[in-house]
# Entry
Amino acid sequence: MKVKEVADLVGISVRTLHHYDEIGLLKPEQTSEAGYRLYSDENLETLQQILFFKELDFPLKKIKEIINRPSFDRKEALNFHRKILVERRLRIDKMISTIDMTIEHMKGTIAMTNKEKFEGFDFSHNPYEQEARERWGDEAVDKSNANLASMTKEEQKAMQEEMNAIYRSLASLRHTLPESDEAQAAIQKWYIFLNSNIGIHYSLEAFKGLGEMYVEDERFTESIDQFGEGLAQFMRDAMAYYADNNKK
# Structure
């Protein structure tokens, strides 16, 4: 199959398939004399596997590493995907049930306990942890987790409130220039907060790289932009300017 046929079949863009080829994630079986990429049935099976991993938020670098291992077993991987997706479905079903009950509770037809209001929520797993390990290594993430675990619930709550206050302050400035004195003073508070509370030290370069991730990863963008649309991009620009202008 030609690249356009594969793209139409799967529902992804031709550009995505070109990117997978360029990074060595999915090489077409052959290229025609006219330069067309030609995909085999085996290529399609590999693509299916890639998209299952992607659905579970695995970064492309990690997917490539996994599927290229000599010990990689496609059937075992499919069983893994199924297990995780079933767990996700059960949690989503539970949250939908909680929403339905909450609506009825608001109507006055049923009474919910405080515990029932939060059925289905699970914050024991950090969805960003795997990617953090990929970018900065296990030691940095383990230090961060250990630092959080050492805090009391009151200390964790206070840290969360301080973090939200900084986000709100930055959100109020997001329509100004990132290099303005006000924006730079606010972003400096964010830099100090991270280095004082997370348990690891961010160099200026790492701080700048973190800002890039706020925009590159839509999960971070969505979370940050809850405080104000465009905040993630504003923070990225302000963090880059801060890092570049505070190097010794």
User: Anything to note?
Assistant: The longest helix spans residues 74-107. The radius of gyration is 23 Å.
